Amino acid sequence: MGERPLQSNRPLISRAKVLRRIVAPIVALAACALLLVFLHGLSRGLDYHGVTQALRETPRGLIWISILLTALSYLALVVRDQCALSYVGVRVSTPAVLLASFCGSALGNAVSFKALTGDTVRERVYGAVSVRPEQTARVMLFINVAFGISLAAFMAGSLMLAGSAIGRLLPVSIISIRCAGAMALLAILAALLLRAWGRKPVAIGRLSIEMPSLTITLLQLVASTVDLAAAAGAFWFLLPRGEIDFFSFAAVFSAATVLGVISRIPGGLGVFDVVVFLALRRFVPSNQLVAALLIYRGVYFLLPLLLAAASLAGLELRSVPGSIGSKAGERASLGAGLLAPIFLSAVTFAVGAMLIVSGATPALDWRLAALQGVLPLWAVEISHLLATLAGVFLLFVARGLYNRLDGAWWLALIVALVNVAFSLAKGLAFGETAAIVFLVCLLLATRREFTRPAAFMHQTFRLGWFIAIAIVIACAIGILLFAFRDVAYRREIWWQFEFDAQASRSLRAILGASILALGISAWQLLRTAPGRVEPPSAQDLLRAATIIHDQERSAAMLALMGDKSFLFSSSGNSFLMYAKRGRSWVGLFDPVGRFEEWPELVWRFVELADKHGGRAAFYQVRPDSLPLYLDAGLRVVKVGEEACIYLERFSLEGSERYGLRQALKRGEREGLTFQILTPQRVCQQQDVLNEISERWLGHHRGAERRFSVAGYEPRFVAAQSAALSWQDGKPLAFVTFMTTDLQTEATVGLMRQVPGAPTYTMEFMFTKLALELKARGFKSLSLGMAPLAGIARTPLSSRWHRIAGLVWEHGKPIYNFQGLRGFKNKFRPAWEPRYLAASGAAGPFITLADVAALASGYSRGPSST
Question: Which range marks the domain in which residue 753 is found?
Answer without folding.
Answer: 643-786+814-831
